[in-house]
Specification:
alpha/beta, 6 strands, globular, beta-phosphoglucomutase activity, cytoplasm
């Protein structure tokens, strides 16, 4: 037996743009008189741009200092800085083992989906030359609730026309693992610090079809 689909998170699973996000947020935060470091930036993994900004403002003691319209302008400035930095992305930025896994899934006729809260996900896939490998990408602009809510994973399953119980979800953030588990999918975590994943792997190099196949057949 095989899963009908595998749904991927983007950042930290397919490529790693976390540092680009950090540089953009650090510049914007600095303009607001708020200092953030990479340790704090880790707490922003897997959540939306708007929620990330709220956490930064809370961190700097300025949560109530801006109107909603002003926060939207700040978030837009961050995104402009981030999008500009994406020009440095090339196909070589795909994390180890991912291109081989996507090719294997295509050969196995297993559907693939993307569940990323990044509004820039389509542009990133295009820069990495991975767009043809994905059958459906959940539209982050239509998502009302950020991870750990399962909404975006359920949207990916709906778009792929498969039941969550017939899918594997892959994440590198704790909020993402919690979202996958809440959706009813089986969860695969990338990174040693995650908890609650059905299968935990140290890096994407261990993310192979034989390993996922063996994992899927457990308890089946």
């Amino acid at each position: 037996m095989k899963p009908l689909a595998i749904v991927f998170d983007l950042d930290g699973v397919i490529t790693d743009t976390a540092h680009l996000h950090f540089l953009a947020w650090r510049k914007v935060a600095g303009e607001l008189g708020i200092v953030i470091d990479e340790v704090f930036n880790d707490s922003l993994k897997g959540i939306s741009r708007g929620e990330s900004l709220l956490r930064i403002l809370r961190h700097g003691g300025k949560e109530g200092a801006f109107t909603r319209a002003e926060r939207e302008q700040i978030a837009a400035r961050k995104n402009a800085l981030y999008v500009d930095s994406l020009r440095t992305l090339t196909p070589q930025a795909v994390l180890p083992g991912i291109r081989e896994l996507l090719s294997a899934l295509r050969s196995e006729q297993i559907k693939t989906g993307l569940a990323s809260v990044s509004l820039n996900a389509p542009a990133i896939l295009q820069a990495l030359q991975l767009t043809p490998y994905f059958d459906f990408c959940a539209d982050a602009a239509r998502i009302q609730r950020s991870k750990p809510d399962p909404e975006i994973f359920l949207a990916a399953c709906n778009g792929l026309h498969v039941s969550p119980q017939a899918c594997i979800g892959i994440e590198d953030a704790q909020a993402g693992i919690d979202a996958i588990n809440a959706s009813g999918m089986r969860s695969v975590g990338i990174g040693s610090t995650l908890t609650g994943a059905d299968l935990l792997l140290p890096t994407t190099e261990f993310l192979t079809w034989p390993r996922l196949s063996a994992f899927w057949q457990l308890d089946k």
